[in-house]
Amino acid sequence: MHIELLPIEAMEKDGKRYIKGVHLSSGVKIDYSTAKHISFIVDGEETKHNVMYFADKFGDKQWQCDCKWYALQNKICSHIIAVNLALRNNKISA
């Protein structure tokens, strides 16, 4: 499955989330994948979060996270950034 990564500029907009994403990117693993989506686990400092990529959705709904910040803000979070950076830097393969 082809994964459309977020542009670097979009991830760098909020410096704090980007920096946290950089730190979290080493703890990203694939949980499972199907023909239409992939589930990633991001090991955080205190918790694990599930980031989903949906190939059949468009725009800002392709990437979703189960963290509270994403649910309240509906914007990319550090966990989504971490997965994108891990994929971009070949730390994991999809």
SSE inventory with pairings:
Elements (H helix, E strand, L loop, with lengths): L7 H5 L2 H10 L3 E6 L3 E7 L4 E7 L8 E3 L2 H6 L4 H11 L6
Antiparallel strand pairs: 1-2, 2-3, 3-4
Helix pairs in contact: 2-4
Account of the 3D structure:
The structure is a single chain. With 94 residues, this protein is of the alpha+beta class. The protein has one domain: Double Stranded RNA Binding Domain. Helices cover 34% and strands 24% of the residues. The protein is built from 4 helices and 4 strands. The protein has helices spanning 8-12, 15-24, 68-73, 78-88, and strands at residues 28-33, 37-43, 48-54, 63-65. The protein has a 4-stranded antiparallel sheet. The longest helix is centred in the C-terminal third of the chain and has 11 residues, at 78-88. The chain is globular, with a radius of gyration of 12 Å.
